[in-house]
Amino acid sequence: MAADRLTPPTRRRWMQGTAAVLGSAAFAPALRAQTASGGPVRIGYAMSRTGPWTPGAQVSQEPNYLLWAEQVNAAGGLDVKGVKRPVELVSSDDRSDIETCVRSYQKLMGSDKVDLILPPWGSNANFAIAPLAQRFGYPMLAPTALSRKLIDMNLSYFFSLLQQPDRMMGALVDMLAANGAKSVAIVYMDDLFGLENFAALNNALKRTSIQVVERKSYPLGVKDLSPVLRGIKDQNPDAFIGITYPPDTILASKQAKEIGFNPKFFYASVGTAFQLYRNVITAPGAEGVLGMGSWNAKTSPGAKAYFDAHTKRFEGKEPDRWASGHCWAGLEILQAAVAKVGLDRKAIREYVAGTTHKTIIGDVRFTGSENTATPGTVGQWQNGEFEVVWPASVATAKLVPAKPAWK
User: Fold this and answer.
1) Helix (H, G, I), strand (E, B), or coil: what is residue 396?
2) Which end of the chain is more exposed for a tag (fewer CB within 10 A), N or C?
3) Could you give the CA distance from residue 23 to residue 18 in angstroms, rounded to a whole number?
């Protein structure tokens, strides 16, 4: 299934939602009347509303920006060192294009001089924007950047909330080894995200006796993975690992189901934690599928409150059980920083860097640019919920150690 076949209804919904929230944030006279310091807090971002990044961006990120701004304004505005000021979101469509994304942020930080920025979606876009934010001095709390290379750039204004590839792939391999997997086949996206996770996965596998029977890359926008999956099926591995984007995660799962490929462990990464995945694969069919996930409504009281508010606000549309929670945690951290130090961006950076933050996903603390408080995790669909199953310290349910047959 191509990405554009998955996205039009989502695209329309979030463009309409964006307009509604921007309007309420920018023009609410009651909020302006409360402003004691000269106007709204202008927060800028670019987000994919068209193109292949749209499914991820419009599940994991932009809905959270909209909900947060709405909640803050409903409470009287953003606390800026004791003064409530309304939030005005200034946003545009990056069209899933790096150059458009870069131009958008150059304008936001350069000529528009917004007070704060929120990050774009995905490792590639964050890799392009982080040095720009560093140059302009804008703190950037990124919930969808998975890149050790980006962490190693040591950009003092960049903070990555997600667990990095070595942590996520390490947790996956530990889980497989502890549960008797002897062989594995891997497919991966041929881009920064795919290559870094693939390298981390290979490094983790070297510490085990698990045999890799197949390694295959594929390009962005792939339309058919069935020939690769058929070849893997013939080798009968214990585990299949797909380092995939949301459309490809669904494509690989549908085609595995169609050809009857049902290994003991079936893992696909970005998008498996989405409600869309459960709905498209159907709840019984998704049972036992593994993927990248780190929280759900059982994780904390704050996580449940957020989950319920999101689902209510967007008419049954649930947050995903991975990056959505990290996105909300980033907004919590930014809000706390502004309440403490105001809109001085250097002071915000220092607050973020030097504080252990209490969030809906648990404690978050940064070592350099990396969130080192959140361990690598594995999630699994069980009875209609994407449960955290590894490691035990953060698990919301026990691992089902053999995937049921597709239904």
Assistant:
1) coil
2) C
3) 8
CA–CA separation, 202 and 80 (whole Å): 46
Q: Which amino acid is at 273?
A: A
Nearest to 133 by CA among 146, 151, 119: 119
pLDDT bracket for residue 221 (50, 70, 90) = confident
Cβ burial 74-92 (10 Å sphere, 16+ → b, else e):
eeebbbbeeebbbbbbbbb
Are β-strands 370-371 and 378-382 bridged in parallel, bridged antiparallel, or unpaired?
A: unpaired
Q: Which of 266, 263, 270, 277 minimizes the C-alpha distance to 292?
A: 270
How many angstroms separate the most distant Cα atoms in the chain? 69
Q: Which residues contact 236 (CB under 8 A, 6 or more apart)?
A: 183, 263
Domain spanning 166-294+377-394: CATH superfamily: Response regulator (3.40.50.2300)
CATH class of 3-160+298-371: alpha beta
Please tell me the predicted confidence (pLDDT) of residue 349. Answer: 98
